[in-house]
Amino acid sequence: MAEILVALELSLTLQNKFDSRVKPTAGILSLARMIKWPFNTGLPGFKEYKLDQLRAATHGFSVENIVSEQGEKAPNVVYKGKLEDDGCLIAVKRFNISAWPNARQFLDEAKAVGQLRSQRLANLLGCCFEGNERLLVAEFMPHKTLSKHLFSWESQSLNWAMRLRVALYLAQALEYCSSKGQPLYHDLNPCRVFFDRKWNPRLSCFGLMKNSQEGKSFSMNLAFTPPEYTRTGTVTAESVIYSFGTILFYLLSGKRTPPIYASKLMSRYRIKSLMDSRLDGHFFDDGTKLVRIASKCLEDDPRWRPNVTSVVASLTPLQKQKDASSSVLMRISKEPTRATQISNLSPLGEACLRMDLTAIHNILENIGYSGYEGIDPDECPPWIRAPKDRGDAAFRIKDFTTAIKCYTSLIKAGFLVTSTTYVRRCLSYLMIKMTQEALEDAIEAHVKCPKRSLPLYLHAAALFSLGMDNDAHETLKHANSLDSNLISDKVPSKSC
To answer: Residues with catalytic annotation?
Structure first.
């Protein structure tokens, strides 16, 4: 039996997706839930970082790099950083100097959280504990927090289908953590829910550790905490469910109403009076069902609250537009009028606009880059020319994984680091759906040769892949304005 379960877990890991249609028999329901999670196998294991690495990544812990919702006033500040060795974007949480005096306890707790790997989490990559410094390093989530998207009336409101997805993904994250021996989450609130590069909601791993060794589990106003916490000062699994219920209430109402009043509102008012007015009534009958789930989570008596597994089971059938990507549900600038404003697009521009990667590949091949860009191939030693030629051959036959490896070896060695090399690796990344890496390569290609239109076209394609359509259209316009340079692209200059 154990061997079968290991094989099943490996199979599910390789699939790297969550199949909510699987319905295990009752006898193995809980076990199946434990191994059915969308593991992020592309991440490295937990590691210990050097302080110098993180100082360099955050530009010396610069104020400009602070991404904490409260800025410098946050009890433990979070910085955006970029690792110098691999260019990976990270979030670095820097604890107050007296928060964790015991380095061993800090490391042990960080390691426990660092073993978790799920696409429902902003995963913990590592930590640092040199001298008095205590730092956590996590995946960086580029599209801000649920708090920013839900409570800011200046931004486009979340539609009903996206709010239901946020609720389910967050519940799945909590269930996964619980199944891995981490059932407690400290200070669960909308600021702890982030949106990744594909606009999927993720739960921050930072809340799986307290803000200090002996500190409180809730940093916000006590009006927002579970009622039992004011009596005991400790977090339980039932407390986490209460906090989750407050987030459900926020998703329903779009307001920061303290949960102590939430249950009264839900019992006294009709559903339409409770719901966020920005939804314009587009919540169907599911609004009533979500109110019932939230009401159960917000029960004063912890014993009457549901467990996280039953919450997931209740939220799953409520989902709308299951096959739509989160960027589509977020309505990230799906504005066809933008496209009509770009006149006389080249074939490459048209291919980027409709995201036809095969057509882009064919055009790149027809352009006929040599890739040496002003360098005589005969002057290149064979040990440089060989990986370049292997990469080009792999790119030609659409073996994009091999092409990436060959071009990466050139870039790391510092040889033939040209605009062409980045352009081809960019498209290769797009082909295998590594969109963030593709975007970074497109930017590098443009830096290498800012007067060329081709890097900008690839930049636009990468932005379209990330669902950032507004930015993509603007970049496409810029590329179109430089399109006269496309002819000169066929005979690359030495400057690129």
So the answer is: 187
